[in-house]
Amino acid sequence: MKSTFRTALFTVLFGIGSIISANAQDATTILKKMDDVMYSAKDMTGKNTIILIDRNGKEEIREAIIQQKGNDKRMFRFTSPASQAGIAVLSLPDDVMYLYLPAFGKERRIASSAKNQNFAGTDFSYDDMESVPFSVKYTPKLIKNEANVFVLELTTKGRSDYSKIGVHVNKTSYYPVLMEYYDKGNTKVKEAKYTFKKIGNYWNAAEIEMTDLKKNHKTKMQMSDVKYDAGLTDDDFTVRKLKQ
């Protein structure tokens, strides 16, 4: 009788363990596939229209150029209006990030502890602007398997102001549809809605709408004139280039 009980208990526990292990593996695979979609090109250049929308619906429009190489190098530079032109941020491997402000004429390295701050008045933080695969920064857990999306819960492997990030991943093409950001009190404080379009062989984030739910403020980033695999080199992602 005891032997039968132990066998049944082992079977149940083994089954539960297998399910947990399978879900963990599924979550890891899904997140890596999402990274593959977002960082599939050798490099990318494009124009970015930034639309800031306040709680009254008033809009402020800015323009920028963005360059990306691989999954760990990114340059983002404002080109207009004149008050913002030249402000740039450079993301490099190993948690290295620089901000350039033309008014001061020199770059400033952004400390890891300061990456939760908003970038140049937008609703995107420096952390959001960083070029690092999600599978490197976060540990995923599969929460739901819905009709059209996988819902993952991401917890940071390092330091973060977020307790978790909920990610809705398209089940067919594996690009993100929605990201929900929660503070340490598990209150949702921001959300990002993604619109992807196919350009050649690659899926491009044609628009990202980031909403600060506390401030009731939005920032839309809209991509245009996107070119892939143009032959960018590491020399295009240096502090010297940042200051030009």
Brief characterization of the structure:
With 244 residues, the protein is of the alpha+beta class. It is 20% helix and 45% strand. It has a 13-stranded antiparallel sheet with strand order 6-5-4-3-2-1-13-12-11-10-9-8-7.
Helix-strand layout with pairing:
Elements (H helix, E strand, L loop, with lengths): L1 H37 L4 E11 L5 E11 L3 E8 L7 E5 L3 E6 L4 E4 L16 H4 L4 H4 E8 L3 E8 L7 E7 L5 E7 L5 E12 L2 E11 L4 E12 L10 H4 L2
Antiparallel strand pairs: 1-2, 1-13, 2-3, 3-4, 4-5, 5-6, 7-8, 8-9, 9-10, 10-11, 11-12, 12-13
Sum up the structure in keywords:
single chain; 13-stranded antiparallel β-sheet; 244 residues; alpha+beta; outer membrane lipoprotein receptor (LolB), chain A
Tell me what you see in this structure:
The protein is of the alpha+beta class and 244 residues long. It has a single domain (2-242), classed as outer membrane lipoprotein receptor (LolB), chain A. The chain contains four helices and 13 strands. A 13-stranded antiparallel β-sheet has the order 6-5-4-3-2-1-13-12-11-10-9-8-7. A hairpin with a 3-residue loop joins strand 4 and strand 5. The chain is globular. Residues 4-22 have low confidence and may be disordered.
Distance between the termini: 79 Å
- Secondary structure tally: strands: 13
Strand content: over 45%
Shape: globular
Number of helices: 4
